[in-house]
Structures are given as C-alpha cells and as structure tokens.
Amino acid sequence: MATKPLFTGNEMIPADASVLFDGTDLSKWVHGDGSPASWKIENGYTVTQKADIHTKEVYGDCQLHIEFWLPLMADSFGQARSNSGVFFMGFTYEIQVLDSYGLDSKNDDCGALYSVIPPMVNACRPPETWQSYDAIFRAPKFDEAGNKVANARVTVLHNGVIIHDDVEIPHPTPDHNAADPKEPGPIQLQYHGNDVRFRNVWVRPL
User: I want to staple 136 with a disulfide (CB 3.0 to 4.6 A). Which of 16, 145, 152, 155 is the partner?
Assistant: First the structure.
C-alpha cells in the first residue's frame, strides 16, 4: 500500500504533525500547576505573560516548528532584551529566545542551547520581525539498568539557517547538575517578563 502523502497541495503543515497552537486557542497547553494556559491571544499569536506554559502531551524524539516575535527594547541589555525560551522535555533543554540581532553570539544569546553551546552563526532578524525555529530533537538514551548511554542531541534551523548540526547536549541547560530525564516530557515556552509573541507551533514525533 502506498504511503499517504504528507502534502496534498500548498499547505504549510505536514499531515502527520500535531498542531500545538494555530493562533486561536491554547487548549493543548497548561501552566505548571495544571491550570489552563492563560496567555493573551490576539491577531493569530499568543503573548507571554504571568508564567511558563507547557504542552499537555509529552514528547521524546520530535521535530518542532515555532515562530516568535521580539519587541524592541532599545534601553535594555543582555538577558533583559526580550527574553524567552523554547524547552524540550519540560524545563530541561532550552533553545534561547532573545534579541541578539547584530551581536557576536555567546552561549546565552538567541539560538544558543542555553548556557552550553552558542549557535554556529547569528541568524537573528531585527526585533519586531517574525522569526522561526525548526528543530529536530533526540532524547537521551538509557540502558536497561538506567544508565545514560547517549546524550540528547538537536539540530536547529533559525530562520532557515542551520545553527546547530546534530550537536550533543551533555546535560540539562538551566541546571547543569540535574539528571537527564528518562521519560518523554512536554514542550515548554518561557515567560521571562517580556511581551514575546509566538505563533504557528507544530510538532511531529519521530
């Protein structure tokens, strides 16, 4: 039997993807305490506020697409410039979201695997411009005794430019001493005090 096509025309999302946010509701997301996600929704995007949100469903190996928009904060510097983050397996492996336009990227700038690995190249667009991440994430692997035998890995394209090429993530990014999770976890979006926007979020388990 022929495989069902992923596309039948010019649609933007493959047929086997799960749409996590289509611009109209956050019903697939909750806050850390399990309450419904309360971020503001307008004009096809959601705006971070109050607290992080994460998906109800959990994922291990997956492909993620997400688009984000950063407000211009000309009088702010460093981590205060439109800060947010995209996390895999809960609050574990972060791709930093930040206004790093025109900077020499460090391991805490936009596109970095936060505090661990800087992007190979700064692919940022200017603030107040829609940007995208496309990531292929591979969860860490464990043997039957529970010993880690392979680190998490990720490939990331930022605005269509490859910034991480199947790189190993040796440990969780927020807390380097935390244990790597052995079970799938949610995708998490961070509220860090700035009005960052997100839209067009979809995921494909691999």
Answer: 155
SS3 79: helix
User: Which candidate, 154, 106, 115, 110, places its Cα nearest to that of 129?
Assistant: 110
CATH assignment at residue 127 = 2.60.120.560
Please give the model's pTM, rounded to 2 decimal places. Answer: 0.95
Contact 133, 64 (CB under 8 A): yes
**Which residue, among 198, 113, 128, 122, has the nearest Cα to 161 in the 3D structure?**
122
Residue 76: the pLDDT is 73
Look at residue 177 and tell me if it is in a domain. Answer: yes
Q: Which two tokens stand for residue 54?
A: 């994460």
Domain membership of residue 4 (yes or no) is: no
Is the residue at 98 inside a domain?
yes
Question: Residue 107's domain spans which residues?
Answer: 18-73+81-205
Residue 203: φ, ψ to 5°: -140, 145
